[in-house]
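Worked example 3 (structure in, sequence out).
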C-alpha cells in the first residue's frame, strides 16, 4: 500500500487517480453565512470567579447542544509543545517508507499504526490522507523514531489529557450532574486516549478528492489541532461550515459518539470532514478520549427520561464499537445508527 505522500512526491500525479475520486454530491452544501463557532475560555473553569465559572459552564452546555463543536483558548498547553509536536509529526512522516513500514499496524488495537486512507481493505474510494495512530493511554507506546519524538508525544498526551479531563468535568456540570459524574461512571481516569495524526499532501484536483469523508468520532470527545492550513468543515444546520482561522494556539473540541450515547442524545456527536488543498501539506492532530476499552457505555440513568422516551441507545463495549466502526465504511453517523434503539 503506497502512502499518498510518496505518490505525490514521486511527481507523477497531475490529476487525481480514479481510486481517489470521491463523490461529494450527496451533501456538499457549504454555508455562505458568516457562522461564529463558539470559543470557550477554559481557564475560567479553574481560575474564574464562581460567577465566571457558572457562565462558562453554561456556555459549554450551549456549545455542546447547538454545535457539538467549539474552540478553546487559555487551555494551558504551551505553544512551544504544540510546535514541537507538529514538527515531530512532520519528521515522522518524512522518514522513508521503509522506516515507517515497521509501524504499519496489522490489527486495530496495535499500539502504533501507520497507514493511508481509512481501511484500505474496504474503502471503495481512497482518502487523500496518511495517518499515524498511537494509543497513548492508559499505556503509552510512541514510535522510537524520529529521535526525541516519543518524549514529545508523552508530554503532549499528558498535557492534552489534563485539558480533556477539565472539559469533561465542565460538561458533566453543564448537564446538571456532579462535576466528576462522567469521569467516575465511565472510569475515565484509566480510560483510552488515541492520538491520530493526519497528513494531507497537496492534491492536484482538491475538488474531486477528500482528506476524510463525513464522519463522527467514536470517543467521548476529541481535541484537535492543525498546522497553519485549514481544511476542517463541520456540519451545522445541514450545511458545511469551514473552520478557517481558529484563534491562535486554540484547540478545536468536538463531541464524539460516546458522548451522544452517555448523554442519551442530549449532546450529539458532530459530523465533520477534511477537505484538501492544492498548495501545501496540511497536518492535523486529533486526540480522542474514551472510556477503558472493556467498559460498556450506555446512557447515564440520570439523563434518561423514562416517562417519555427511555434509553435511545443500547449499551456497547467501547472496544466492540471501535471494531464496528473499522469494519464498516466511514460514513457520517452510520456506526452510531447501529446502536440506536
Ligand atoms: O483533519 C481534520 O481537521 C479532521 C481530522 C479528523 O476528523 C479525525 O482525525 O477524525
Ligand atoms: Fe474526526
Amino acid at each position: 500500500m503506497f502512502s499518498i505522500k510518496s505518490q505525490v512526491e514521486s511527481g507523477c500525479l497531475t490529476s487525481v487517480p480514479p481510486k481517489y475520486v470521491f463523490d461529494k454530491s450527496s451533501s456538499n452544501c457549504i454555508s455562505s453565512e458568516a457562522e461564529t463557532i463558539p470559543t470557550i475560555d477554559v481557564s475560567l473553569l479553574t481560575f474564574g470567579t464562581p460567577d465566571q465559572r457558572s457562565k462558562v459552564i453554561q456556555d459549554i452546555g450551549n456549545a455542546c447542544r447547538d454545535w457539538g463543536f467549539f474552540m478553546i483558548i487559555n487551555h494551558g498547553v504551551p505553544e512551544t509543545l504544540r510546535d514541537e509536536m507538529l514538527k515531530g509529526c512532520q519528521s515522522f512522516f518524512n522518514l522513508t517508507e521503509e522506516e515507517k513500514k515497521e509501524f504499519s499496524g496489522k490489527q486495530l488495537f496495535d499500539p502504533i499504526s501507520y497507514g493511508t486512507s481509512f481501511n484500505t481493505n474496504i474503502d471503495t474510494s481512497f482518502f487523500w490522507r496518511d495517518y499515524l495512530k498511537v494509543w497513548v493511554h492508559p499505556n503509552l507506546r510512541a514510535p522510537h523514531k524520529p529521535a526525541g519524538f516519543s518524549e514529545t508525544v508523552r508530554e503532549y498526551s499528558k498535557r492534552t489529557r489534563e485539558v480533556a479531563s477539565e472539559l469533561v468535568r465542565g460538561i458533566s456540570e453543564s448537564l446538571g450532574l456532579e462535576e466528576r459524574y462522567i469521569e467516575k461512571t465511565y472510569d475515565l481516569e484509566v480510560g483510552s486516549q488515541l492520538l491520530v495524526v493526519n497528513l494531507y499532501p497537496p492534491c492536484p484536483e482538491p475538488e474531486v478528492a477528500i482528506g476524510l469523508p463525513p464522519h463522527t468520532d467514536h470517543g467521548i470527545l476529541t481535541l484537535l489541532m492543525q498546522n497553519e492550513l485549514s481544511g476542517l468543515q463541520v456540519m451545522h444546520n445541514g450545511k458545511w461550515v469551514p473552520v478557517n482561522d481558529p484563534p491562535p494556539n486554540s484547540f478545536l473540541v468536538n463531541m464524539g459518539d460516546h458522548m451522544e450515547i452517555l448523554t442519551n442524545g442530549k449532546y450529539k456527536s458532530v459530523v465533520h470532514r477534511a477537505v484538501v488543498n492544492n498548495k501545501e501539506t496540511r497536518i492535523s492532530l486529533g486526540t480522542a478520549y474514551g472510556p477503558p476499552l472493556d467498559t460498556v457505555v450506555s446512557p447515564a440513568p440520570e439523563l434518561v427520561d423514562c416517562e417519555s422516551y427511555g434509553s435511545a441507545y443500547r449499551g456497547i463495549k467501547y472496544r466492540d464499537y471501535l471494531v464496528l466502526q473499522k469494519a464498516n465504511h466511514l460514513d457520517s453517523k452510520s456506526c452510531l445508527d447501529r446502536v440506536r434503539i
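Notes: The two ends are 38 Å apart (CA to CA). The mean pLDDT is 94.
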